[in-house]
Write the structure tokens for this entry.
Amino acid sequence: MIGSIRGPVIDREPAFDKGNNEILVEAAGVGYRIVVTASTMASVSLDTEVFLYIHHHHWEADQKLFGFLTRDERNAFEGLLGAHKVGPALALAILATYPPAELARVLANDDVDSLCEVPGVGKKTAQRLLVDLKSTLVLPTLDTVDGEPIDLTESSARSAVLSDVRDALEALGYGTDDIKAAVGALAPADIEAAGVDLAKSGSGDLLKKALRALASGA
């Protein structure tokens, strides 16, 4: 099992359609074809040495190497593969859209809209992924946001009120951009308080604040 590769990049093959970005790295006289994200592709140059953490993926009739610049990226990729119906192509697309730290924010906030920005991910798939990924992604990077520890499993109350607010705004006829703006304008302290008060009127109070934010042009 290949865990890492260090060597010069001797060829680059960017994907101009839905194919894979691929680089060829020579190590000990052997050239290894490695699939990478677009951002990794952009950061490496021909004839320069690169060190990549490798996920060696096997199918029944094929195998590929997937390369990442950091261990967190590889861990995130492997965690994504543990989610239901997530293969290497979708896992790579998610990481290409949201690096580990950004993915942590998406999961912590149950941000369905952000996941829908990943090519090939619709709302139903995004909702399923949010549930699955909280059980498959256990990473140091994903356990902290801006240096503060977070617990993705214990954030369910906060996530629930945010989901209620989004659903209510959508039912009232607001579009995706307005909903994002309204939710983004909510104070973290109000969100936390609403999560604690979920059994009473937490989501209702938060919805009123979201509507006021929209009325004020937030």
About this structure: The two ends are 52 Å apart (CA to CA). DSSP finds ten helices and seven strands in the chain. Residues 139-147, 149-156, 197-201 have pLDDT under 50 and may be disordered.
